[in-house]
């Protein structure tokens, strides 16, 4: 390593200039005012000096050219370095400040800057400007301190805590924990706790170091510290398990949940049994001092430690996916203990200083400081109670009965609860369904798809016969069936599972995901048609005339059953209906658009009903053929179950189209009477909005999207009188009411709602409430039209006030029924 001082280049330059042999050239070193020699590039002086030393400096003079300076020497000398600034005085006075306010104002006046204009230097980037805005802004600068404020929190974690204070701190941690479950970051929730911060920073290498009082043995006078430490250990370990579970499932960061831990280790290197031992030791300690602190306080502390132990046990058992009755025991225990905790909340003494936003300054985060999220005790109680109830309920998905009970009822009704289950429960449901690509921990994807095909289109069919897989002869018809069916399963499996996964998301994401899924199902349907054509030759299927002549259709010629494409088409129609229905639930459509969207929903439901009728026709024909061949008990059960499903889904389609027809006519009448008025939209037209609403369905070939002209004529119905519209709405509501009465009488098995029958019945009753409310609105309108005539328009002339908002209380989110109120003429 060289020890040459920094002044050597200047000294060498000076010597070389003195030795120059060129008499016409003088090399002068400019010295700054502070007597500091000017530093020039070393290679430049070396080259100049070299010419004089070796006698080449005379060559230019002999040619009459003289010395040609380098380009660097033509540049102005660099400015001198700033003077040294010595705090507290000295020989130098330091940097002199000048007031440039007047110069800036003069410059602004000369350029005539208007209000709002900005002069920006080209090298002043956006990053620098944002950084400048953060400086000394309390909302953006985490280091900005108020007068008298310290940088770090001043709370002393070693101070003696009373039992009431420990209860108060734990109860506040409950509120912060629930806020984290709801999607707020750890930096605004649990990591604002001073005790947890001291426990995790620096990162503990052994469990004994995971303490907010480091390098100190626990003595007799620190009982409450032991209790609080054990609880904090349990909370942090729960957070790690839940965070890890959510990260491995499908969720949306910042929208559903924030998994960022800000480079803090959540005790991931320690085993669960170690944490449980600490919790059990703390419970024994509380029990031993119950005579000192009192039975009431000891029970309150014990309940809180017991809840944390049960929570860890529930998380540990959730990976088993075995017997739901045994898995539900910790959740049931938490449900009971939580009630006791809520009743003992008055024993706690709040310690707000144990939580500080100053801890955010030490977290690995680019976010500005944010306040602590504070949920009330009542809100926390309700959310935890719902969490434990959903934890018990979600385990019922492990009781597999049939594919339709799993998808169309359990997953859908579970996710449609209000409020929706927390993201941890939703990811737990995903884990039960998809972990290791084994459905519910015991079923293959093929098993579930074959069950669904058998239930919907292929009951007791040779296409699903397991014996086909045992044939290895390539020219055998069974080998061909097995090959074609496996090709179809591989093509449809991902699309089929994506429906389950989509319904495990939040409601907005469900609709957005389904809008993409229907295009995939369009492709599945086209592929299924090709496979159907190959299979119908292998099984030598006989085409039939559909619809039958006796049904008044006259038939359109012989046609094949096309079971696989019919199955795909049925799911595509269901997805399209769900997209429209979720649009009502999420309030996507404006009030003046509701009538048109309900008309389109009725068209989709009619298409589904026609498709189910076609499937039923071919299923009955196959069943008649099986009866002639003396079917087995299993085959008869398969046909009975398929027949019941087709009846139930046909009934559901009929109810949907009748209710949609009724609301479409009702909103058409309200618009015609001036009770629903479209707001001014200067930047759009009705046709443009129609294109936007129907964009998800534009690429679908069947059913074909109606044109704007057809849609407009069908929703306005100008050729029909207003009274007739209301009469049609009344008739449709009557039909829907009869269908709902039949639906309510279905059993758990017949309704394909095994494991979720209560929620399914609640949905049916909600639709019944919507039908009854809509019937009341229709009757009020009909009576008022009879009294005042159809020529009256507007609320004042008709004496009516209509409000359109969310679904009626006790009703169904998919049926937006307006509320109507009769007002005085004055």
From TrEMBL:
Residues 18-41 have a biased composition (Low complexity). InterPro entries: NAA35-like_N, Naa35_N, TPR_NAA35. It comes from the Eukaryota. Residues 116-276 form the NAA35-like N-terminal domain. Keywords: Cytoplasm. Residues 1-47 are annotated as: Disordered. Its main location: cytoplasm. Residues 395-744 form the NAA35-like TPR repeats domain. Pfam families: Mak10, TPR_NAA35. It is found in: Cytoplasm. Transmembrane segments: none annotated. PANTHER family: GLUCOSE REPRESSIBLE PROTEIN MAK10, N-ALPHA-ACETYLTRANSFERASE 35, NATC AUXILIARY SUBUNIT. Belongs to the MAK10 family. This is N-alpha-acetyltransferase, non-catalitic subunit.
